[in-house]
Every structure is written in structure tokens, then in C-alpha cells.
Here is the input.
Amino acid sequence: MWKIVIIDDDFQVVRGLRKAIPWEELDAEFAGEAIDGEAGLKLIEEVNPDIVLTDIYMPEMNGIQMIEALKNKAFTGRFVILSGYNDFEYARTALRLGVDDYLTKPVTVDQIRQVLAETIQKLEEMYLQRLEQTVVPSDPAVNWRQEEWTASILNGLSQPEELPAALSEWRNKQFTVMVIEVLWTERTRNISIADWNLFRFAVANISEEVLGGEGQTASFVWLFGNYAAVLLRSEQGAEAQQTAALAERLGGLIVDNLKGYIGLDARFGLGRTKKSWNEVKASCDEALQGLLEDPSKEQEEESSRTELSYNTIHEKHRKAVQFMIEYVHVHYAEDITLEQLASQLYISKNYLNQLFKKVTGETFTNYVIRVRIEKAKVLLLEGKHLIYEVSEMVGYQNVPYFTTLFKKYCGITPSELMKQ
Here is the structure.
């Protein structure tokens, strides 16, 4: 939540603001009050608020002097001045100091709501711009769900010797992996993270409905970027040719339904049927390789207009992207930069970023955010941790920063998720 402090020597003003500010609507909290600039300095150093609402004319130290002192100490919060006087010189000084707004008392509820909403929006933009520069390491708390466990096997992130109890039905089955690729078209290009999350949800629902409607026992999981996998299970000894034909038909149905219901273009690749659950990664690799080596005509036309085409994504490049994905899943709570990975892979940063986006359909930065937020959702829904604890567990020590990213990605705040 965004922390707001009020600095004013008029107790009635402070009391009125505390009642007037729509705290819940703004996802904000009252972090304290002070009656003059000197007390305000101590309060601000103690609670480190995001927004300071301050008067100008106060004893001991006025509001302008307090703001100047805070600026000299590199305070990064935002300022809104509520003054009883419309003083041009003070207003000009306030603008020079980067104050977000200068309101003359008395203010209306609508005015204060609008000003604070705009100030919070600036804070959100500032935190997002600092994403690649401000990442605080923390020890991760890994708690795999069934879907994550399956995705980790298919991505090669783990190689367990035993099945979890919840997946005991996988014993004595054979497996065929289908990889679904959502194609990047005008409909999906440049969409927001939140909208992409809705698309992912819809793709999963439609795929599962198709499989359920056909009476198939299968698991749907997202692998990375715009790639998902369907793990089809069949009885041991089932005819391989019949299994492949069934998988081909199911893939066609999923692609047709994605196009028909939500207007998404997709294609699929199939791996060979494997006789044991611990061979599913090999089937997944075969399906992925088939997609990368056999692009559709539309994709060939699209890629011919770019510097990097599917034809240049050789096995070593795919492995480089796979290494990056695995690294993020293991080190998501640490400081992760493209420079680090580029030095380890002996590939230039710019080329690596372009390669990652071409293979996965999203930027490396967005992928890191998505992995962290998905981990956070799991932890929040468990109900065992406070929001600030989850924030630190996924690599964000600044809770408002974490809340901004979470809301942008999920469409709701962490606190709203926990109430559901």
C-alpha cells in the first residue's frame, strides 16, 4: 500500500484530510502526522512515506524548507502542498523543487482524490521505469503446485526420481506431449501484461474444455512466453499410430476453438509417445523443435521482415533461451540482468534480448516480472505470509513497487486477491 503522511499545524485540517482521503480506493494508508517541518523531517525519515501532504506556513521550519532538506537527502517520495495562501513566490519555488501539486485550502474531496490518484500514477510509472535497475535479492521460498511441478519437468528445471502423491495416476501410463504456440499477430502484439494474462487464462480454459469434451485425461500447463503444453496420457501398450492420430485431431480442435472463440491464431507440434513419465521432457523437446524448425508460411513472411528469423534460431540459440528461462525460475528472487546472462552465454546483450523475444514472444524483463508475480500469487493464496513478506520472497523489498507490478499484471492488488 502507498504510505501517506500529513504535515500541518492545524489539527482540524489533519482530521479532515484523514476522513476525506479515500484510502481503500487509492490502496493507500495513513502513515503519520506532524505539526511542523522539523517534526515532519523526523517522521518522514522514520516511516519513509511515498507521498507527503504538507502545509507551507508552519512554526520552526516551513513546508518549503522541509522539502528542500528532504531533496538534499535524496528523498524519492512525492509532495503535494496544501496551503492556506495563494502565494506566487512559494508556488514558483514549489514547482522548482518538483512538487506534484499546489492546492489552496479549503480543498474538496474530489480535488484531493484526483490529485492523490495522479500522484500515485506517477509513482507507479517511476517504479516501473526503475524495474531493470532496482531489484533487491532475497531468499526464495519455493512451493510447487501440481501445474508448476509439471511445467518444471517439461522445461527441464527439475528431474525428480519419484512422482508426487497427487500424480500417482501417472504410473503405468504412456505420454505424448503437444506444444501449443500462440502466434503473434496484430491482435496480440503490444498488448499489456494484464491483457496477456487474460489471454493465457482463456487459452487454458478453452484447451481444457476441448480435452474434457473429448474425454481425454491430460494436463495443460504454460511453459514460457507464448508456448503451452498439453500432456496427453494413455494406457500402456496403446497403439502409437492411433495415439498420434488422436493427438493430431485434438491439436486441430484446440487451434480451431482458440480462433473461433477468442480470435487467437495458434499452431501446435507433437512429440513422440513415451512409455514413462520421466521421459516427458524428451517428448516436449521434440514438439518444440518441430515448431521451431517448421514455421508456417505466415511466420516465414513475418520473420523475413526482421533481423532475426526462425531459420537462424539454431539448437544452440534455443538452448541459450532455455538456460535463461531455467535461470529465472531458480534465481527469481535475486538480481537478474541481461548483462549477467549475456556474459555467461557469450552472446551480446542486444542480440540475446532479441533472441529471447523471438523465441518466447515476450521481453526478458516481462518474463522475469511474470515469473515473480506468479510465484507471489501462489504464496498469497496460501495465506501463510503477509504481503510485505511475499514481496521480499519474490525479490521486491519495496512493497508499493511490488503492489504496482502485481496490479498491472493481475488487474487486482495483493490485498484484493487475499480477500477473494
About this structure: Confidence is low (pLDDT under 50) at residues 130-144, 294-314. The longest strand covers residues 173-182.
